Structure formats: C-alpha cells, structure tokens
User: Fold these one by one.
Assistant:
Number 1:
Amino acid sequence: MLTRRIIPCLDVKDNRVVKGINFLNLRDAGDPVELGARYSDEGADELVFLDITATIRTRKTIVELVERVAENVFIPFTVGGGITTADEIDLLLRAGADKCSINTAAVQNPEILKECAERFGSQCVVLAIDARRTIGKPGHWHVTVKAGSEPTDIDAVQWAIKAEKLGAGEILLTSMDADGTKAGYDIELTRAIADAVTIPVIASGGAGTLESMLEVLEKGQADAVLAASIFHYGEFTVKQVKDYLAQAQMPVRPVK
C-alpha cells in the first residue's frame, strides 16, 4: 500500500494565512512562510498554498510569496488560486512551486489541462474540484467555481474522469458542504471520485479529528488528507496525525 500524505493547507489573502467556514468569515492564522516552514520541520509531506482572492493584479505578489516559500520550505508545495493560463503556471514553477492547481480556468476551458500537461508534465498539474451536494439527487455532486461561490451544472465525478483523460496528474477535492466545519470529510464524495479515477485524490474539507482523517483514507480511499485550521490553531500537530495513523496500520512517512 502506498504511503499516505499529510498536507497542511494555507489559504492566503493579502499575504496572510486565513481560515473560515465554507470559505466565509475569514480570520487570521499567521504568516504563510513561517507556517510553511514550521509544517515542513514538523514532518508534513507537502504543502498547498491557495491564494483565495487571486486576480491578475495580485499575481506579482503571489510570485514573490512563492519565491520566499521556496527559500524556506524544503518539501514539495502546490500553489493555486486565480491561475488562468499556462504562462502563469510557468511563472509560478520558475519561482519555485512544484505543482499548480487549477479550478475555474479549467472548467471554463478544459483544454488548458492538456496544454499544461504537455508543457510541464502531468505531475505538475493539479485539478482542484470544489464540489457541493446536488439537492434532490442523492449521491451526486456538482462543481462550483470562483472559490465555491458560483455553482455549475457539471457533475463532479464525470468532471474528474474527463480531467484525468486531459492530463491532470492529481485531484484536490474539496467538499464545500464540509469545508471549515470540522465535522469530518465527505466520505461518499471522496470515495466516488477515488473509484472513478486512477490518479491520486487529496481529500479536503471537514478535518476535525484524527479519526476523521483515518476514515477518509480508509473508507474514502483518499491518497492524501489536507487540513488547515486544526494545524493553524494548534489542535493537532503533523506528528500527532502521523503517529495516530501509523498505530492504525495506515502507511505514512515517519517524522524524523
């Protein structure tokens, strides 16, 4: 069985890490470079930095942040938020990012996934899916865009299948219903996506307990768990998560 990854997520707004519930009511959680370096030292396998208010006018600021992170963090990290072109991904990769995640731009123009995979390799291309349960259709979820604020009529499972064929190398799957609630991951959603694709699926949205992380890895068949507030506000450390998972016979990379 492949080693499962523990990935702290840093939502960045105006060069500060913030966290809210369902992407709303944001509160400050610290400096992104300092937090990233701390998680790296604590044994995190990777990091995700999401510029949650990204627009083209703030791109220069994010490039500078990526450069600072690359100088201080020595584990792979993904950058996302507001990316609309392959050239922007090129800029971020050159600044030091290992991968870039795309959401809205890929929904608007799916061919961007193919273009980026051919240009940079699938291993650099992460499709971010922000999914919400479809009312009146149990077992179905639709894709949302623009930081979860705008629904589409795209089925999340079918979108994941299409994205893999186009060249996405990984899926960052966030349950918009569970995000920030600490009530547990959406196991049914995660399992549905994981069963539909062969590329790794990162489960996001709802981390609140050690048990919830184990559950989404076991029952949800996720390849990695992403969490934010439980790490930012000191409820658990990366080591505590890994120790718990190892005791439950879930393969994780040991903390040195």
Note: The chain has a mean pLDDT of 91.
Number 2:
Amino acid sequence: MALQFGIFDHLDDNGIALADLFETRLKLIEQYDRAGFRSYHIAEHHSTPLGMAPSPSVFLAAVAQRSKRLRFGPLLYVTPMYHPLRVAEEVVMLDHMSRGRLELGLGRGASPVEIAGFDVDPANAPAMNREATEVVLKALTSDILNHEGKFYRYKNVRIAARPLQKPYPPLWFAPIEPGRAADAARLNGNVVTLIPNDGVKAITEAYRAAWQAQGNKAADLPLLGVFRHVVVADSDTKARDIARSAYRRWREHMEFLWVWGGLPFPLVKIYPEDLDALEGMAMGVAGSPETVRRYIAATVEQTGINYFVGDMAFGSLPYEAASRSIELFANDVMPAFR
C-alpha cells in the first residue's frame, strides 16, 4: 500500500482579520484538492486562539463547496460538548453535500478548560464520549432511535435521513495509548496520533494486532497516521527561517488556554517551545524537498504508518509561504512515495 498524505489544521489565529483567515484557508484547501492530498482534517477547539473554527461543521460545509475530490472531516468532534443526535444530523448533511466525501472523527476532547466551559464535568468526558459515539452510530444506521443510557436517553425518535456512505462515513480516532488504538481497530476506524515516533510504533503495532485478530486481511488495513508540522522551501535555511517564528506563535496558541486556566500544559514534552527542539525530536520538519523526503521516509520506517498528515499552515505562517510549501510538497515530495 502506497503512503497516502493528508492535512491537519488547527486553524489557529495568524494575526489577520478572521474573514481573511477563513478565505485564505479555503484557498489552501482548493490547492490541497488539486494537489492530490487524500484528506483534510480540522481540529475542534473553543475559547482559544488555537482554534478559530469552533464549529467544524460550519467550516466543513464551505470546504464541501470549494473542493471536488478531497475527503474531509473533523478530527475530532468533541462529543461531550454536543447533543449526539445533532452531531448525527450534521454528519448526514455534510456527507450528502460533499457527495460522500466526509470522514467522521469522534472523541472526548483534550482540554478540561474547554469542556468545563460548556458546563460539562471533564471527569465525565471519556464515559460521555463512549456513550455519545454509540448514540451517533445508532442514529446514522436507524430509522427510529431508541437509547437508554447514563448520559443520553431517546425514545421513539424518528430519523429523517441516512448518510450517503453506508453504513456511515469512515471513522477516525486520535489514540495516544496502544489500548485505544486496539479499540479503534475493533471499529474498523482510521487513526492519527501526535505523539513521538517510539509511541507511534506502539500504536501501529497494537492496531495491526487487533486488526489481524479479527481475521481481517492486511491489504484492507485502514489508515494509520501521524501528524507533524511541515514547511518546505527552496532551501533548508529558507524553510527554517520561515518556520521558526510561525511555529513559536502556534506553540503559544497551543499552550494559551492551559496557562489562562492555571493548569500545567500537558504536551510540553511533545511540543517544545522552539522549532530546532521540535526537529530534534523528529516531531516536525522544515527544509528543502530532499530534506523533507528523507524525514518522511525515516518516519515511516520508525513508526509503521501508512498515512502521513502534515500541518502546513500554522501560527504566523503567511498564506504565500504556505502555498509555496504545499506546491513544493506536492510536486517534489509526494511523488517519491507513490
């Protein structure tokens, strides 16, 4: 199976007017579509400059209209912050609006400050997510929804429409522990993780073991991906000059709400404060096409992934620099892995 490529986007504040941020990002999405990326994944965040699209469905409705082949979806809908039946209805709409290009990510969320802001006890988020996921999948596959659970109850609710993709759009999860990867395998879900390479290897091995234990064929293996920051330019020096300040701003956004809420930032060992340290941990790359090709080849070898997901527009990175980076990546990096 050839390595496939996707995009992950926090859609964080880059200092320009919000309307211009949305429009330039949609222009980049048109470019991803033309360039042959498989999928575009958007994060969900609230009350923070890290995520300026707190309603993924609203932004993805525009993505559906501005692309033709690109698959797309939330990574993830933070289910404890939603009414699950509403999530199911939005999934159905987006799947039909895109004529079957939606990818469905469901998760518990990572930030207790964000979750608590919606009057949800963060301690309940994992259990709420498990039950909400069950409800959403029931609603996508039923004509009448009945459910009696701890957090959600539905009795004789009529479902007006089903997704275009059957039984529902491909599922996505973002595990950071091998056990959660095995859970995803049992649901035939795809995964993307953001942890360092040694941890990714444990994720992919756990997934493959659970997948094979169900009697599935290796050729049918879902996508096992890793998320990394990527900037490509005509030389290593130019790429790093562009990426350093952009990454620093993104890192400030990543930490922002934790600091604001008076909580220790939990990802400090994954995301250091400067680009050089990030590259030293192999958690990102800024360089010429040749440097980036070597980096991706090494990542695949070290992790066992079959899906590489780049964050190619982040922090203060200008639109023009991001567009040039995507052009070089599509023309001079991706073909080496086909």
Note: The CA atoms of residues 3 and 277 lie 27 Å apart.
Number 3:
Amino acid sequence: MNKALERLNFIKNRIEKACVTAGRRPNEVSLLAVSKRHPAGNIARLNQLGVSSFGENQLQEALIKQKELQHLELEWHFIGTIQSNKTRAIAENFQWVQSVDRERILRRLSDQRPDDLEPLNTCLQVNIDNEPQKAGASPEEILQLAKCIDGLNNLRLRGLMAIPRMTDDVAEQHASFRKVRLLFEALKNKGHQIDTLSMGMSSDLETAVSEGSTMVRIGTDLLGKRET
C-alpha cells in the first residue's frame, strides 16, 4: 500500500504542478488509471486510496475484473479498439467509452445500451497526426461523427480522446495537443455540450495539461509494472 500511495502522490503532484504552471486549477484535470494487465487486487488497493476511474482496453480481461470488483463503486472506461462483436458487452458493462471512431460502432453502442442505464458517456478518438498504424477518426471526420451522436438517445458525447505521435520533442507534443484542443473548441462552437479532453499519459502529461487536457490516462507510473 505504501508503494501505491507513493506512486499516486507522485502523479497527483505532477498534475498539480502542471496545472499551476498552465494557470489552471488542479481540479480541472481528472485521473484515469489505466489498469490493463493489472490484477483486480491492485485496482482495489488504488480504489482504497481514492481512485475510482479505471481504463481497460481488453474486453474479456475487463469483464473478469468487473465481476471480481462488483462490490466497489468504480467507473469503467473502455479505451481499446472496438470491433463490432464487442459493442454489446461494452454498452452493457461500461460507463464510458473513449475509443469510438466509426458511425457504425456508435449506432451499435446506442442500440445495445440497456434502457435502465444512463446514456453511455462517449469520447470520439481522433488520429490527430494521421498515423496509419493507429486507430481513430481523421480530424475531418470528427464533426460528422459528433453530429451522428446527436441523434442517438443512448449515447452522450463528452468530448475527444487522442494519442498523438510519440516524440520527445516538446514542441511537437505541443503542436499535436494543440490541434486536438482546437478541434475540441470547434465542436463546442458547433453547439456540442462537451467537457472532456482526454489526452496525456505518463511521458507527456505536463504538455497535455498546458494545452487543455481535462483527463490524463496513467498506467505503469501509477500501478507499477504490468503482468505479462
């Protein structure tokens, strides 16, 4: 528990310092713990320290953990690639989905969301640097996908998620994150009621926060080395 607390405080301090540097309030940026390949016990320990939001990208692994941890009040985010045969389980078992990049997937998620659950919080994943090996809609497709969600009763558009090109060049990091923020602002200007800009990980959270991120996704630096 001491090691988990140490890691958590380290990440919280980084977020707080990044917010102060950017002239923002620390409560403007939330923490999503990326718990893929970490056992349920690690999630439970982190939850005891006050973390309640967890991101998973492997569906079957996530469903097993959700069953083990159903006695806890956790908020589950699906952040992995979404295939058509996964949409029902995601719609039924997650509060958030952050990796939608196709209209067909949006419609399936809405159709398969149980009526007794709140609308599924949805972030559109944008491939901001147009990298062919990465998932995500192109920036040019995002406005149409957002418009599609407006007609789907069981989804709630919350914002954008992005994984920009990996680089140690801080200027390039800023440029990529700034493009995501400008696209986010364009959605707002079109009248979309959005509040979530999910960008920034362990290696670049400071840059992401400076460019307007409202949610950072942290894995190893928070939960330790992943199990193989």
Note: The beta strands are 30-34, 53-56, 75-78, 96-100, 120-126, 155-162, 196-198, 215-218.
